[in-house]
Every structure is written in C-alpha cells, then in structure tokens.
Specification:
Elements lengths: L5 H10 L2 H11 L2 H6 E8 L17 E6 L9 E8 L6 H19 L9 E7 L36 E4 L14 H12 L5 H12 L8 H15 L4 H7 L5 H29 L1 H17 L4 H9 L2 H10 L12
Parallel strand pairs: 3-4, 4-5
Antiparallel strand pairs: 1-2, 2-3
Helix pairs in contact: 1-7, 2-5, 5-6, 7-8, 7-9, 9-10, 10-11, 10-12
C-alpha cells in the first residue's frame, strides 16, 4: 500500500543524503546566498535536531551548512526544506512559525547559547501552475498608505522564504553542473504523477544508473522507483524491470509493492462493483490496472474485457499478480 504522503516520503528519502541536499540548495538558493555558504559542508540533521512541529509538516528535513566566513560561527545555518504541492496563500505565515519552532529546538540542543543561527526555509513548489501567493510575511499584513500606518511597520516581521517554483523552471534547464541526481529527483517530483512520465521514464533510469555503484545509492534508487510505482502512470512491469540491478531485498520490496497495488485495485474493483454494477466495474478496473502494468491495451483486447462475464474478470484480475505479458491473462 502506498505511504500516506508519497511525495514527502520520496523527498526525504532522496534529499537526506548530504550530497543531494547540497545539489538541491545549489538549485534553490539565490546566488548571493549561495556565495555566503560552503555547500561542500552540508550536514543533514537527525530527528533529535528537528522541531516536533516540523515533523510531517516540513518534510522532516533540516540541514546545517557552514558559512564561508572564518569569523562566522561554523555550521550554524539551518535550512528547513519543505515540499509543497499547492499554492497556499498563507505559506509565509507557516514558514514563519517553522523558523520560530526550529530556533527553539536549536536552543534546546545548545543550552547556554546567547545567539540563534539564521534559519532559511525553502519551499519546493510542484504545482501545475506558477506560484502566485506572497513569499514575504509583510505582504500578508493589512497596512494601508495612511501616514499613521508607518508607525505600525516596525512591528511587522521582515521575513521571506526561498521559493523553488518547478512549475516555472523545469529542473532540466535550471543550472548546468548541478548534481544530476538532485536535478533528476526534482524533475520526477514535478512530472512523476503526470502522463509524460511514461515517455521520460527511460531517460530517468539512465541518468540515475550511476547510483548503483555509489555507497548507499541503491537505497536511493529504490526509493525513487517505489515513488514512481505508487504515483506515476508508468506501467508496473517497466518499474519492476528497472529494479533488476538492485540488491534482491530491495527488488523484492518493489515487486511486493507492485503486487499490493494490483491486489488493492482488485479489492477496489470488487467494492465498486457491489455499488455500481459488478461486471462493468471489474472490467474498468482490469483495464486500468492492465494498462498500468503492460502499457497501451489493443482495441480488440479492450472489447474482449468489456464483454467478459464476471467470473472471467475476477480470474484475470488475480492473474495480474503473476502475468508477465498481457496475453498470459487469457491463457
């Protein structure tokens, strides 16, 4: 069964690797801010350093980065990196509370400290349309142009978050020389649930092939394939074949996930059938799952499925668990 929020789970699984977190920051941060930081010294903080208020709300991912200045305290810049798939009007307010929570957590982890580190929140927007809401807290506060309003402005927090809007800038053209896995993962986060993922899938697998030789790379690749298995229209058998080079235990996890998806679809079909007409619902479910696993279904096969009696449809749905080819269903 798919995780409750596969997008955030995928984001954490990939970008908890310091190298890929650094690649994300090279893509997301404005040039001036990048120049202040040593992105070769990125540390992904464990759960004890993450405020409980951020867990499950900001992708549970906070990284610490050293500043280049020798006078600046080392490794005290903390980034809260959040995946956000919809344009939310009050995102700046949410990020403002995350900064406060993470600052309190930092003080708990550093008793006796007299200063706080800067906290820079980054929102990765993967929506279908460009982000339109304010990135600054000040824009959310209702202050007019009357002279007396100027007396209130000193009490309005000056705060912004960094926005990486993938709806505006496709990752493949963001910046040359960026870590390719980071760039590919962001592209998958943006495009994975869409129809075009089917045509891009082979290119993604090729670009991610070096992960197989990296320490810990197999687990990152497995997380990416699992994400595509759960959210994308890429046929299941193509995802399973891409897992062939993974260690047996990781491949088995993906195969099991594929089987669970098929069984889940079968159960949904049965339930829907009880409500809307068993034969019609089972036929629609079988076509959907068969297309997900084997790709485009020929017109004559579609007609055969739509006309089949309920017992045949149930048997064919069960056969999806083991069939290697579409024709195997009807043997």
């Amino acid at each position: 069964m798919a995780p409750p929020n596969p997008h955030d789970a995928f984001f954490r699984a990939v970008f908890r690797v310091p190298r890929y977190a650094a690649g994300l920051l090279r893509i997301a941060l404005p040039p001036g801010l990048r120049a202040l930081l040593d992105l070769d010294r990125v540390e992904v903080l464990d759960a004890s350093h993450v405020s409980p208020a951020l867990r499950g709300a900001a992708s549970d991912l906070v990284v610490q980065v050293a500043r280049r200045s020798a006078e600046a305290p080392p490794a005290l810049i903390v980034f809260a990196v959040e995946h956000q798939s919809v344009d939310e009007r009050f995102m700046a307010l949410r990020q403002f509370t995350y900064v406060a929570e993470q600052s309190r957590q930092w003080l708990r982890n550093h008793p006796g400290a007299t200063h706080l580190p800067p906290v820079v929140p980054v929102v990765v927007h993967t929506g279908d349309t460009p982000w339109r809401s304010p990135v600054g807290f000040q824009a959310l506060v209702d202050l007019g142009d009357a002279p007396e309003d100027a007396l209130l402005r000193p009490y309005v927090p000056v705060f912004e978050f960094v926005l990486l809007d993938l709806a505006v800038a496709p990752t493949e053209s963001l910046r040359p020389g960026v870590e390719e896995v980071s760039e590919t993962a962001l592209e998958i986060l943006q495009v994975g649930p869409r129809a075009e993922a089917v045509t891009r899938f082979d290119a993604w697998v090729e670009r991610l092939a070096p992960l197989r030789a990296e320490a810990g790379g197999a687990s990152t690749l497995a997380a990416i394939l699992c994400y595509l298995l759960y959210v994308s229209p890429v046929p299941t058998d193509r995802v399973v074949r891409a897992a062939d080079a993974l260690p047996a235990s990781m491949k088995e996890e993906i195969v099991t996930g594929a089987q669970q998806l098929i069984e889940q679809g079968r159960q949904e079909g049965l339930q829907k059938g009880r409500q809307e007409g068993r034969q019609e619902a089972l036929a629609a479910m079988l076509l959907r799952l068969a297309q997900r696993r084997f790709g485009e279904i020929p017109a004559e096969t579609t007609a055969r499925i739509e006309a089949a009696p309920t017992p045949d449809l149930e048997r064919w749905l069960e056969g999806l668990l083991t069939a290697e080819r579409l024709n195997d269903l009807f043997g």
